[in-house]
Amino acid sequence: MSLAPGIRLDLRQTQSLVLTPQLQQAIRLLQMSNIELASAVDREVADNPFLQRADRDAGVLAAAGTAEPAPTAAPLPAAAPRPADFSLSVKRAGSPSFDDERTPFEARLTRAKGLREHLAEQVMALLREPRLRDAVLQIVESVEDDGYLREDDATLAARFHLEPAVVSEIRAALQRCEPTGVGARDLAECLALQLKEKNRFDPAMATLIANLPLLAKADFNELMRRCGVDAEDLQDMIAEIKRLDPKPGLTFAPDEPPTVVPDLFVLPTGDGRWRVELNAGTLPRVLVDVDYHAELTRQCALDRRTREYLSERIQSANWLAKALDQRARTMLRVGKAIFARQIPFLEGGAQHLRPLVLRDIAAATGLHESTVSRATSDKYVATPHGTFPLKYFFTTAIPATSGDQAHSAEAIRQMIKRMIDRESPTEVLSDDQIVAALKAKGVMIARRTVAKYRESLGIASSVERRRAKALGR
């Protein structure tokens, strides 16, 4: 006997995580940088009639609409590796200050003239043709920060829709400008321009400039043969080249890079302890206008759709205020946990960084690792040793030789840099020697790791450094 097919209705109980729109918004706000956050809040204020930007000292408002500032203190976690006083408070100043000095008023009214502005004035004075003004500005804008104009004339002419002869004329004028050497296509032309100004570009020097790769290899015998000079003359020529400026554009102030505004400050309290503070100047604050909402909802003539809209807008406003307050609390919580574990860095600098991973801060704060990651993404902290991304303080561990506490990878990088900076011209350290020196300091590290860290610091190999130091003898 077979059962006839039919329709069945079953009930099943399952668990699932649902991200509400409000929770998604809180996650987005936490991950934003301070600049992105300010723009996002401005958009919300423009879109919501019940939101207003608050005064800087009004504090972050809670959902009820009353002033309720972000947390001003929190206890140090019991799991901290060493005792310290971390007073967490909202900093009311808009910029970091580690002393009582203030920038003079006059300094804020002036700025250094940039390289391109300086060159444009000179080229226009040399050519004195209004028809060339736009072309001059285009070509000068293509000059790199080091002073080079590496693109050839044909490429520049095609890019700016100019005649090649016009580009050549502007480059020739540019190469007559100060600082001497700007407008060059490469290093050889840059040095040649400076030597010509000094009336030192004789045939022997021209040959030396044409053979810069041999000079980089310290192949002095071949250079003497090609230049037709003896060893003493060659050393004099090399010394003269070393007095030239290979990057003349850097003598002028470069275009100001985007300013990094810290989200947190870590400040000494004066009694050997440290304080973590929020940068209140970057925290957008909002006011929830509950009175205006109450006044509108008391009107009996409102239809259902209008009342639903007003209800949705007031809920959105309240949630944004809560989310901003929670973001501030989370950042303080994470920042406090980070620097409770990085006190050696605060006291001694980068070479004393301790190994740290997201999991450590998650365990200390009770937050999920993804939350810690978002709280540190695109966030910066001002310390007595400079302003750093919060991610900078998360580094992998390098084991110690004697079973002591592991070393931070960044601290090892700084140790390698110091060793190489201190090496003498006659004793250039190989990677194997650096490995041995680190092992003597209790650091267990492989040669390939030393090479990787050295290359990441932009430091040449021992062979290349030895050649470079030979030119300085």
* SSE-based structural type: alpha/beta
Measured as a percent range, the helix fraction is: 40-55%
Q: How far from one another are the termini?
A: 104 Å
* String of helices and strands: HHEEHHHHHHHHHEEEHHHHHEEEEHHHH
Number of helices: 20
Overall, the morphology is extended
Give your account of this protein's structure:
The protein folds into three domains: 20-93 and 258-395, no CATH class; 115-251, no CATH class; 397-471, Homeodomain-like (Arc Repressor Mutant, subunit A, Orthogonal Bundle). The protein is 47% helix and 7% strand. It has helices at residues 21-31, 34-47, 115-127, 133-141, 153-160, 164-174, 187-197, 203-210, 212-216, 220-227, 231-242, 290-297, 304-340, 343-348, 358-365, 369-376, 409-422, 431-440, 447-456, 462-471, and strands at residues 51-53, 89-91, 264-268, 274-279, 286-288, 380-383, 386-389, 397-398, 407-408. The strands form three sheets. The chain has a five-stranded mixed β-sheet, with helices on one face. Helix 3 (115-127) packs antiparallel against helix 4 (133-141), helix 4 packs across helix 6 (164-174) and helix 18 packs across helix 19. It is extended. The model is unreliable at 56-110 (pLDDT under 50).
